[in-house]
Amino acid sequence: MTATTSPSERELLPRYRSLRRRRIFASLGTTLALCCAGLAAGVLLVILAYVVVQGARAINWNFLTQLPHPIGVPGGGVGNGILGTLIIIGLATAMAVPLGLLTGIYLALFGRGPIPEGLRFLSDVLSGVPSIAIGLFAYAVLVAPLKHFSAFSASFAFMMLMLPLLVRTSEQAIRSVPQTVREGALALGMSNFRATMYIVLPTAMPAIITALLLAIARVVGETAPLLFTAFGSQFWQANPNQPMAVLALQVFTYAISPYPEWQTQAWGGALLLILAVLILSLGARLMLRRATRDLEA
Amino acid sequence: MQQLEPRFRRVARFVSPADRGFAAVVYGGSILFALLIIALFVELVLGSWPSIVHFGPSFIWKSAWDPVANKFGALPMIYGTVVTSLIAIVLASFVGIMAAVFLADFAPRWLATPLSFMIELLAAVPSVVYGLWGLFVLSPFVRTAIGPVLQKFLGWTPLFSGPIYGVGLLTAGIILALMIVPTVTAISRDVIAAIPRDLREASMALGTTRWETAIRVVLPAARVGIFGACVLALGRALGETIAVTMVIGNRPEISSSLFAPSYTLASVIANEFTEATTSIYISALIELGLILFFVSIVVNALARLMIWSVRGSERT
Amino acid sequence: MRRSFYRGLVTLALGVAMTLPAAAATQLTGAGSSFDYPFFSKAFYIYNQKRPDVTVNYQSIGSGGGIQQFTAKNVDFGASDVPMNAEELGRAKQAVLQIPVTLGGAAIAYNLPGVSATLRLSRQALADIYLGKIAKWNDPEIAKLNAGVKLPDTPIVVVHRSDGSGTSYIFTDFLSHVSPEWKSKVGTGKSVSWPAPSSVGAKGNEGVAGQVRSTPGAIGYVELAYVIENKMPAVTLQNKAGKWVACSPETVAAAAATKPNVSPTNFSIVDSAGANSYPVSGYSWVMIYKDQSDKTRGKILYDVLSWLVGPQGQSNAKSVDYVPLPVNVQNAASATLRQMQR
To answer: With an 8 Å Cβ cutoff, is C284 touching chain B?
Structure first.
């Protein structure tokens, strides 16, 4: 370090030296942390880049509207997969929203006690169950006894995947409606039913819709339960009681195939899935901002 | 977050028939919800009962998976699940915690918001897209770049010996790590941000650098919550199916090398369920599902306990 | 907010209802062998163009899966490269008809960058590779058969099926015929315990082809159509007569010609005699229930399948690199089909 030092400096030297070293470590450490954050965010960009570049090649009007072609016949698309995804998610939403809302209302109105706690515990359990186990359940309950694969069994599996988020958010959203609003309604002589349905729920709706959008974003890419529920199809199918093509399943089947045209279509399907998830997530964020704005008003 | 006050509950009477109907519907919905989840558990147990009875507890430590001879043992699958999840959690917790520290304590607002957003978006990418990317981009990369480098420096250990296929435990572990990094980062960042400012200010008043404060003061204070975040992420990694199926190599074998192909509990069910021919085969697969179910529940419950104790009653 | 949500729901329901008439057409479902998948997908596509109100939805999930789903009555017909044996027939609890629908060969595809010549393998060498006894491409056994070819020092990555596969059955049947060690140690089956250490499992013929294609040093057994479609190099095998044959529709047809009368109990044509026979060939089968509970559906199923095994359906085979059934086999199949109570 320094050659000539005064006695007072010598006293300070050990602390000074270690301070410099500490500062170096601190900069290194901060850089490391920055790199880690950058790495995590960067991976997203890398994946997105690949999907966009590879997938954009596959996407055209035919891809979005046509049926898959057999091997050896070029062209074709994932039109039936897109329709199937919409139908299955639509059905799942139709089942999950009422059930989730009702349970959320129950938990919000009767917050304490062993039974509500038990329900919350079950909801937590369900959110941790792997999707493949839920697929097994849907198979055992809706495919094996009825002896055919169906889109409805896939919707059932998706419903179970969406429920925990809906239940939790409905409960929180209803609870966070200010006391004053609820008391005001009751003071006007409304029954509990009317108060909840016409006053409390609409106020809580934006938050619930946010949760719904996020739940849909989660299931739009779920493939595992589809393997033994929806089964897939190469044709147009809108009857939920029949096997149906689903976009996520088509991406999986095409990806593990050896045909380059199919692999390109797999990337195209992946791009569609990511776009759907992005739009839903952004929509959820916008809704959330609106919800908090409304509540603060 | 408001709790219903006791006096309000007494006031909330069910006066009209509409109210009673409403109450019935609400009760009914909640009961149905509970029944569904209980039915899930019951179905899994019923389905695996023949296998439980036939193989007994030795199912867990037997390693033969022979559909022809109807001999099934879960050990290779448990091994694959444990190893891939371990790789994932080791990689993801390091990167995730560092990223969380940066986002919570160091990044200026204009940087933190977009970075957090992007990391959270990683969580939204569908599993099959991860698998696709893993199969076509990461696998060749592991085979041509990461694998040979690891083998050059660490090839003397059994962990990195053997031929490098591209697919295998290591690739699956890396993909899982990518999938769970957002969980670790987001929850850890919230936990770190929730540590009171006075702790940091006191530390810095004593002359520590910001980095030292973060590492030696804030992180230990937040360790329970961060650990909970890691355990929650572990729970997600354990159940991940499709992305792993596409890059694991599908071989029910225990090998010491991380480059070797393997199998996980979830991916064997995905691959073999539709064609399990004998009832004992189906039952064995469902028993694997049951094992996975239990493990996930235990891990998740543990995680939530840890996270709640730091973040209070606010739930993740 | 709530009202617009419900409105959206109603619109969705109406939209779904409006498309329902389109689905009034009959859709038959079949599942099973990935061996047949290229042939089936082409044939059923052509059939749908001829007869737009019938669609046949075939999913390639492996022969084992086909038999399983057929037995569980989740599908109208199953497809498998190996007919159901007595035990499987017993599980079906009803009379089952099995007809051969196509003929194909399992080519031995490989991926060896830097080696442009087509490799030769004797039947014993192939068995040894899959037994794990030959681990590198430049093993003296292989070099001996390929004089003049510079073989790299790459480890052999053995690829096999991870799902229950009729193609695996044909291949292991072949290996059991040529290697007593394989026969005693591993045996024949749709799903066996593959002895080669660190071999890789892939799902479906498509998966094996994909895996071999993307892994340098890999070798795998894949249905011929996949190999031709993807322009993958395939091994020239030495057959029982000692001649070197490549897998092609002609060599597979030659193997089939050595056994003019096939039946579900006597169907193996692997390792057949004959100068031009390809050793790893096999028929592929479709199974249906003799008594169809839904008579209309049963009639449509009969129409589809008799078209498939007749000259018109079989003419699609050539264009996708499958071998049309020999005429006498076509007639036998049609005769079996007529037993269907329709």
So the answer is: no
| CA distances from residue C77 to A26, B276, C62, C328, C335 in whole angstroms, order as listed | 68, 17, 13, 23, 18
All residues at 6 or more sequence positions from B278 whose CB lies less than 8 Å from its CB, including other chains: B70
What is the per-residue pLDDT across B144-155, written as a single tens digit (0 to 9) for each? 888 888 888 888
Alpha carbon dihedral A87, A89, A90, A96, in 10-degree steps, equals 150
Q: Measured between beta carbons, which residues in chain B are less than 8 angstroms from residue A137?
A: 39-40, 43-44
- What's the gap in Å between the CA of A251 and the closest CA on chain B? 7
Q: Give C186→chain A minimum CA distance, Å.
A: 27
Which pLDDT score, from 0 to 100, does residue C20 have? Answer: 47
Site from C11, C37, C74 to mutate, A interface, most A CB atoms within 10 angstroms? C74
Q: Which residues of B touch A278 (CB under 8 A)?
A: 121, 124
Contact between A130 and B293 using a beta-carbon 8 Å cutoff: yes
pLDDT at C94: 87
Candidates C70, C85, C192, C198, partner chain B, best to mutate (most B CBs within 10 A): C198
Decide if C207 and A202 are in contact by the 8 Å CB cutoff.
Answer: no
DSSP C291: B
Q: For domain B75-275+298-311, say whether CATH 1.10.150.120 is its number.
A: no
The number of beta carbons lying within 10 Å of the beta carbon of residue B258 is 25
Structure token digits, residue A71: 């091997």
pTM over 0.90: no
Contact present, C205 and C34 (Cβ < 8 Å): yes
**Interchain pair A124, B212: CB under 8 A:** no
Q: Which two tokens stand for residue B282?
A: 């189906």
Determine whether the interchain pair B18/A217 forms a contact, defined as Cβ–Cβ distance below 8 Å: no
Which pLDDT does position A240 carry in this prediction?
A: 87
Asked whether the beta carbons of C299 and C50 are under 8 A apart, the reply is no
pLDDT for position A7? 59
State in words which class domain A61-296 has.
mainly alpha
Q: Which of C16, C42, C74 sits opposite A238 (nearest CB)?
A: C16
Residue of A nearest to B31 (CA): A103
Amino acid at residue number A277? V
Asked if A255 lies within 8 A of B135 by C-beta distance, the reply is yes
Domain ranges of chain A: 1-40, 61-296
Token pair 């039915």 is found at B39
| B139 interaction partners in chain C (CB closer than 8 Å) | 214
| Angstrom distance (rounded) from CA B95 to CA A39 | 8
Which residue, among C2, C24, C6, has the nearest Cα to C14 in the 3D structure?
Answer: C6
Neighbours of C (≥3 Cβ pairs closer than 8 A)? A, B
Residues of chain A with pLDDT under 70: 1-17, 72, 291, 294-297
